[in-house]
Design brief:
It is a single chain. The protein is mostly helical. It has nine helices and four strands, in the order αααββααααβααβ. It has helices at residues 5-18, 29-36, 40-53, 71-95, 98-117, 120-137, 141-157, 166-182, 185-199; strands spanning 56-59, 63-66, 158-160, 203-205. The strands form two sheets. It has a two-stranded antiparallel sheet with strand order 1-2. Strands 3-4 form a two-stranded antiparallel sheet. Helix 5 (98-117) packs antiparallel against helix 6 (120-137) and helix 5 packs antiparallel against helix 8 (166-182). It starts with a helix and ends in a 26-residue tail after the last strand.
Length: 231
Amino acid sequence: MRIPAHSVCTAIRDDIVAGVHGRGSRLTEELLARRYGVSRVPVREALRTLEAEGFVVTRRHAGACVAEPTEQEAADLLETRTLLEPLGASRAAGRRTEAHLKVLRGLVRLGQERARQGTGEELRSLAGWFHDTLARAADSPSLTALLTQLRHKIAWMYVVEVPVGPVEYWAEHGAITDAVARGDGARARALMTLHIERSAAAHRLRFASGGGRTESVRNAQHPVNTAGPRR
């Protein structure tokens, strides 16, 4: 059975974000195919996609390598997020479905509960799920794709700490959800802008300028989940 290139792409991207493939390390088709249990064809297609997304670069005499973004490029990502996330919230206010609202409200309730308990790692996961659901509620495939790619790259370049005042942080999520539920796009945009600006302080770069490269791709097999792309 031929493994879809998008599944291979998702697997490689996830491992880049997780640091399995270090910044600057080579990505050879043969080793990647062996690692993910696929042929070289979907690996080649995946590398082209990842290069277009900025995760991979092609170097003379070295071939495909994991990109090494600068601090300025990393800062630009956070600035771009402050523009796109509020737009997504505004669009979601006019296009969300009841199913979207049900998920958003459930996440807010769970997030507020966990915030009172101080469960840090779970809060980060819930926040990611919240923003992903809100992006999908915007009902704009191109915008959703941009926001998803942006979140992947921010997770790759930054360590996101649990924000100071997690209860207030989740209260902001609740207020955004209320605005979306009322169909108030202007309010949703304004609240999201404030939320993103405040959360930016919780981001810490994973690398410093001039940092060295890390080890190359591991040889151990890591078969791709053929049921669909990993999230």
